[in-house]
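Private note to self, pasted from the team thread so I don't lose it. Backbone tokens:
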């Protein structure tokens, strides 16, 4: 049974969240932080996207943030960035988002993202200087083949001889890059030569070119060269990632989140070259990437994450980590990897979870959405005698094995600077709905049948 004194303390600490005044309070908590990380407990909850979009708009308008960096592939997000910055060939947000073809499409091809992209383009239309237009960038590394091809395409225009060198380097892996897990398996078990040296050479060459521009062109790297350099970085780190997949989950996870941190730092520096000060970036990614890994059982097993790396590399006042949780509702997720998007019922949170504590505080305070400040406060969460379970629903949700599949022990007060709790959440609506995404077919008692 939950101690009611704990709930009373959390109720006293909680604040309503969602209205204009509530955003003002959060922005005060964020202060002068230039890297604001906005999490999510699932990859398929509408309220998480809407609230993050609301925070992002306020950060851009009121605090001068320069970019949104998301848990997505660099080439696909760059196409969106060109559109919102009034470049590229796309004529509508849905078209700009059409690069997101691989599973899980719904993470970015959804109605909430369309609204954000439309807002970014409208906002940038009122920004006089192109250098001050807010961009939209990807932090992830799954686009191995697409990124290699993007490097070659850039060089074909800029330096055909360099493009030929890139083709030769990437030929080591390109014929297997449409199925990079097959490449990782082949190299791990000695059936294929390791191509690491070749992808490193390509990144080194582009980095040299960028450094020449830094010295000779007023300290600025042209955008297109920077974008190509980032694609080369994706190729290098993706090659490492797919080899690491067969060494263990911790190794591949660490490669991925280290890549996110590298990309964020490179983007921040590149923006700073144009503006004269370090870029101000808001990051969207899952709680598992943004909640400091050192406060979780995964961290104890050797995993690190983006939130941890950001806290280690920057001053405390430069960063702010905001987590999001939910108690129950619906969610968009698949049952298996590469499966169709389904509308699923979220099982009520476990009695021994932080979500259940926040649910009880939500009910007691009458706040269906609440903000719990944590940084610099003697919060009740920080005073609890033991860690609680915390739920993580990614692109796959399996309610029948939820305790094993979706919960881990963590100290939320050390993971985050604040938490937003949405007590009953609703599923993100994909632009393309499968036959399994039907709003009229999810009974309230699914999957328990009670």
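Design output:
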């Amino acid at each position: 049974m939950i101690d009611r004194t704990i709930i009373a303390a959390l109720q006293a600490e909680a604040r309503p969240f969602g209205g204009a005044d509530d955003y003002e309070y959060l922005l005060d908590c964020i202060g002068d932080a230039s890297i604001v990380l906005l999490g999510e407990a699932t990859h398929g909850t509408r309220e998480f996207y809407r609230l993050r979009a609301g925070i992002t708009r306020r950060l851009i308008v009121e605090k001068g943030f320069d970019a949104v960096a998301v848990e997505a592939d660099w080439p696909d997000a760059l196409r969106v960035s060109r559109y919102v910055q009034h470049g590229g060939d796309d004529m509508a947000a849905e078209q700009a988002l059409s690069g997101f073809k691989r599973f899980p499409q719904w993470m970015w091809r959804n109605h909430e993202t369309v609204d954000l992209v439309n807002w970014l383009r409208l906002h940038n239309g009122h920004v006089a200087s192109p250098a001050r237009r807010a961009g939209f960038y990807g932090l992830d590394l799954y686009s191995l083949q697409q990124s290699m091809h993007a490097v070659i395409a850039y060089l074909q225009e800029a330096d055909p001889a360099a493009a030929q060198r890139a083709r030769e380097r990437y030929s080591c892996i390109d014929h297997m890059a449409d199925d990079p897990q097959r490449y990782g398996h082949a190299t791990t078990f000695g059936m294929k030569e390791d191509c690491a040296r070749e992808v490193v050479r390509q990144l080194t060459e582009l980095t040299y070119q960028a450094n020449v521009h830094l010295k000779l062109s007023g300290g600025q790297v042209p955008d297109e060269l920077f974008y190509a350099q980032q694609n080369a970085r994706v190729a290098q780190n993706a090659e490492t990632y797919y080899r690491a997949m067969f060494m263990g989950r911790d190794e591949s996870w660490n490669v991925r989140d280290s890549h996110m941190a590298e990309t964020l730092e490179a983007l921040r520096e590149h923006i700073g070259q144009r503006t004269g000060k370090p870029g101000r970036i808001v990051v969207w990614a899952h709680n598992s990437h943004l909640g400091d890994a050192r406060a979780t059982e995964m961290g104890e097993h050797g995993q690190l994450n983006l939130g941890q790396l950001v806290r280690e590399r920057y001053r405390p006042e430069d960063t702010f980590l905001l987590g999001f949780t939910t108690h129950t509702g619906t969610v968009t997720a698949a049952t298996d990897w590469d499966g169709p998007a389904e509308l699923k019922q979220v099982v009520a949170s476990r009695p021994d979870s932080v979500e259940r504590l926040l649910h009880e505080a939500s009910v007691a305070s009458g706040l269906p959405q609440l903000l719990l400040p944590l940084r610099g406060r003697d919060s009740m969460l920080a005073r609890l005698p033991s860690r609680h379970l915390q739920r993580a629903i990614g692109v796959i949700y399996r309610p029948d094995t939820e305790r094993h599949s979706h919960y881990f022990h963590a100290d939320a007060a050390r993971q985050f600077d604040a938490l937003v709790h949405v007590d009953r959440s609703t599923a993100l609506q994909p632009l393309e709905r499968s036959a399994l995404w039907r709003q009229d077919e999810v009974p309230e008692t699914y999957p328990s049948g009670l």
